[in-house]
């Protein structure tokens, strides 16, 4: 599969740049988590850069993308500013969700990135709905739905694939098979481990790609999107990949061996693609170092930006939540009988 | 050799209790009940090899094997329903759901199946199922991972819901739940898992479902709480005693369904003022139910309206400052108590 020809050099270089940016961003996010600049859960996509960039680059700008709680990379690949992604991780006002969502809930409406979701399998029906809306409006837009191997065991998987096939929706389901649903390995959580075969019974044909190879992932996703868009047939793509880090930062990784991780690291998508680009004369080795340096600079800038951005204003707590008049004060303020109580009044630093 | 040497050394009496964490107390309850009754088995995401997302089941796979400590796929509706089915045949499954937020994926099996089969089939079958799951917020886990939805389950006839706030109650209530013939939702709590307390070691000691406890006696005002709100209420009570000489009584509900109104009413009828505290949203919440029950039971005793403190009515935001402000923090509880006492 690594034999697929490279795209034009400027395209290949941009893919490498984006993959490098994701890698460096994720590493820095992990460091910031260790420094308690980032809270909550943090799920890194280190190792999955080829799957992310290959599939996202197959989208048109007008297509929709929807993902999971492991989605910093999807936002970055879609073009969301690294500064705003980092600011979101820091819980700051300039973050993509104004600090409301954090690591698990990236979002970028102008770039048609319809969000990262925290409930495993929760995003699949939404993807069908987005495809339904596109179909309803008679547009040519398609939807790419990303989820993990663990999500393939949720009820929403079967329900959504059937709906999508029945209604001939322009949607591609991409299962990022990184070999583990949290700490449970594929063969311990799935009776059928060829996940791409799981769609056939629902009328959704499946195909597998090498998720460690950005070119193969790109070509496979392009064809899947073409079928979805032109033939109105949903497709299930299984990208075989591996996460080099734990499920989240809180994962001691006792369920897998160092040898297995090391074996997969031999196929590090960033290294293999970079070396191939140099070997085939598309990007000289020196330029690769330059790309890496620039990615680190960008991430440095993102951290500075996030640091400098303010925390959300206390009085913004109820923004975007419907309340009737000032009823909410009864529960939020100390005493609903007291006059002059303001929203967010007793918020500490 | 003199006869004196025949006097045996005094055998140290087995300790009646031991200090352990909430999670260790839950683990002890599971171990004792699994040893006592072969029908008891555990299943859930990461309960075996990973030893539980919050390490409650650590060591149980090694002791009981994969038949009785069963790792599941991420298929909450599937394995909760499987728990219902196995319980209908007389097994006593204990199903762990990683957090109460994920129990929503399986809510149809809980509400439309587990809660119904006993009565709907005329008492022909029982459903001795236990669902263990933590609620809780405060670690920036954001809107989809920070909810306290136990009130939803307490709303449903056919279910029992307990929410222990101490290690001793965690052990005693989980054991009662496992021995109960009805489905019981055992609501654990993320911040309390690490808290320590004295826990009775007698394997026959249980805490009956449906009995509240006076966690701290007092005469001036009653705080009614459950789960982590009890911990907060106790902190506030100590602070008010030290700083203002106010003696607040704290009633820990322990069970939400059945609800021990008697203990609550007995307290309120003495203190004449009450603040209900919960980690969930107050609207249609546990404190709403309490307010209704208290006004009826204590109508003539109340010197002030029933007050409530709960989570701000928003999907919990990620940013640390907003999260802190949204929670029913101790400042807010204390201020409400003072207001109820007309001292604010």
Descriptive account of the structure:
The complex is a heterodimer of chains A (349) and B (344). By secondary structure, chain A is an alpha/beta fold. Chain A has a single domain (9-316), classed as Thiamin diphosphate (ThDP)-binding fold, Pyr/PP domains (Rossmann fold). Chain A is built from twelve helices and eight strands. In chain A, the strands form two sheets. Chain A has a six-stranded parallel sheet, with helices on both faces. A two-stranded antiparallel sheet of chain A has the order 5-6. In chain A, α1 crosses α11, α2 (49-56) runs parallel beside α8 (214-230) and α5 (123-137) packs parallel to α6. Chain A is globular, with a radius of gyration of 21 Å. The N and C termini of chain A lie far apart (54 Å). Chain B is an alpha/beta fold. Chain B folds into two domains: 21-200, Rossmann fold; 213-340, 3-Layer(aba) Sandwich (Rossmann fold), CATH 3.40.50. Chain B is 36% helix and 18% strand. Chain B has helices spanning 22-36, 60-64, 76-88, 100-103, 107-114, 117-120, 150-154, 167-179, 228-244, 261-271, 286-297, 320-326, 330-340; strands at 17-21, 40-44, 69-71, 92-96, 130-135, 160-162, 184-189, 196-200, 213-216, 221-225, 248-252, 255-257, 274-277, 307-309. In chain B, strands 3-2-4-5-7-6-12 form a seven-stranded mixed sheet, sandwiched between helices. In chain B, α1 runs parallel beside α8, α3 (76-88) packs parallel to α5 (107-114) and α9 (228-244) packs across α13 (330-340). The longest helix of chain B has 17 residues, at 228-244. Chain B is globular. Chains A and B meet through loops of A and α3, β14, α12 and α13 of B.
